[in-house]
Amino acid sequence: MTIEKTLSKRERNLADIRERAIMIAERIVLEKGIDALSARGLAKDLNVSVGSLYNAFGDLNAVVRAVIGKSAGMLSERLHLAIETSEQDKRSRVVALGEAYFDFAISEPRRWWLMFEYRTDALQDPKAQDYQIGLLEMLIRAGEADPQSEQHRQFFLLLWASVHGLVSLACRPAIVAINPQIARTYIGDLVDAGFNAFPID
Question: What's the pTM value of the predicted model, to 2 decimals?
Answer without folding.
Answer: 0.83
